[in-house]
Amino acid sequence: MNKIQLTVNGSAIEPTVEPRTHLADVLRDQLDLTGTHLGCEHGVCGACTLLLDGAPARSCITLAVACAGAAVTTIEGLDEDEIAAELRVAFTREHALQCGYCTPGMIMSARDLVLRLDHADEHAIRVGLSGNLCRCTGYAGIVRAVSAVIAARRQRGIAAVIGAGRTSLGPVGSQPGAIAAAASPARPAATGIKRSGDLALGSLDPSEVMPAKSFDASFTVNAAPEQVFALFGQPKTLAACFPGATITDLPAPDRIEGAISVAIGPLSAVFRGSARIDRNAADLSGRLIGTGRDRRSRTSTSGQISWRMLPIDEGRATRVALAIGYSLSGPLAQIARDGLVRDLASRITTTFAQNCDRHLNGTAGPTETPEPQRLNALALLLDVARKRLTGLAQRLRGP
Ligand code: FES
Ligand code: FES
């Protein structure tokens, strides 16, 4: 993982990224700047166009590490921009959008044309926008809108800016200081640290597991922190509470071998692997480090889950604070977008919490161990979709 410095919409940030992560994913997944759309992810459709050091660039084929030191402007950063404001009005008036999917990228490229073109030349506008595909409008309204903005500005005496104010060609590294930063992005030291794809099954040294993604989660259990901590020390019971998990062997007190089943509609995967549990009774914390592989899809995963038991309700209940880090490599990694994984993890922890609660409060029966539950990711996905649609409907309805 590399820590890089970027200025995004005027704010300095230091995201940590994998060398293969493209800029659009950093903006959308880490910064929630979802105005940068992804269409083809091949540099063809232009939906992901943004400004890098002031020049339009395709963020789907731009590696984030190559942007170290650059200034990034997304559509969200043009809220107060005068030209973007004029384009928004003209796009609305000329019916230059229908679904709006291409519109953020279209506005980015159009803004560059408004800055650069001497006059409203339809051919030059069509050529300038030829890297932005729109599947809805037929382009006529878009060209009319851009022409109108250029014509109106020139009429008001606002001249074109040669080269849109850029002093050198090419976005990244075009600014002084950016070249050095881009040429030497922070690279992991040559310590032999391996990524998930390199991990052999059973390689459970924490120093060898370097999660590509991480997030925090928490849940509440109606039992004292010491009771919940003790439950986390019983691998079989813990696995039975976890949807889809089974244990095949316990080769040592702190070692688990087993599998987690995931079913997504007709696709199913069984990640078989091993895990190690470290516990610290002094502060009621612990950590699970695991690796696994689904042989059929040839997808590997590795990760760490750290927990800490925090007393609430005067010690009668516990908030379990989790820090989850994971890496996925292989075909299934293609469909596991960050937001989706986080939503799924939130659903899984809810079920896990309910199972722990049932077990600790005796509703599973005094000697009864909870039955392992298969993780039905399709049901979870539908629930995630339902949740997102409800959120969207609420946003559309307004406060
Ligand atoms: S998503 Fe980047 S060009 Fe299509
Ligand atoms: S408005 Fe739908 S793709 Fe352009």
Describe the protein's architecture and organization.
The protein has 399 residues and is of the alpha+beta class. It has two domains: 1-187, Beta-grasp domain (Ubiquitin-like (UB roll), Roll); 196-397, START domain (Alpha-D-Glucose-1,6-Bisphosphate, Chain A, domain 4, 2-Layer Sandwich). The chain has helices spanning 23-30, 82-93, 103-116, 122-128, 140-155, 178-183, 225-231, 235-241, 338-360, 377-397, and strands spanning 2-3, 6-8, 11-13, 16-17, 49-52, 55-58, 71-73, 213-221, 245-252, 255-264, 267-280, 285-294, 299-312, 317-329, 375-376. Strands 8, 9, 10, 11, 12, 13, 14 and 15 form an eight-stranded mixed β-sheet that branches. Strands 3-2-7-5-6 form a five-stranded mixed β-sheet, covered by helices on one side. One FE2/S2 (inorganic) cluster (FES) is lined by residues 97-103, 134-137.
Brief synopsis:
By secondary structure, the chain is α+β, with helices and mostly antiparallel strands. Helix content is 30%, strand content 25%.
Give the helix/strand layout.
Layout lengths: L1 E2 L2 E3 L2 E3 L2 E2 L5 H8 L18 E4 L2 E4 L12 E3 L8 H12 L9 H14 L5 H7 L11 H16 L22 H6 L29 E9 L3 H7 L3 H7 L3 E8 L2 E10 L2 E14 L4 E10 L4 E14 L4 E13 L8 H23 L14 E2 H21 L2
Parallel strand pairs: 2-7, 10-15
Antiparallel strand pairs: 1-4, 2-3, 5-6, 5-7, 8-14, 9-10, 10-11, 11-12, 12-13, 13-14
The structure holds FE2/S2 (inorganic) cluster (FES) (2 copies).
The site of one FE2/S2 (inorganic) cluster (FES) has 12 residues, from loops.
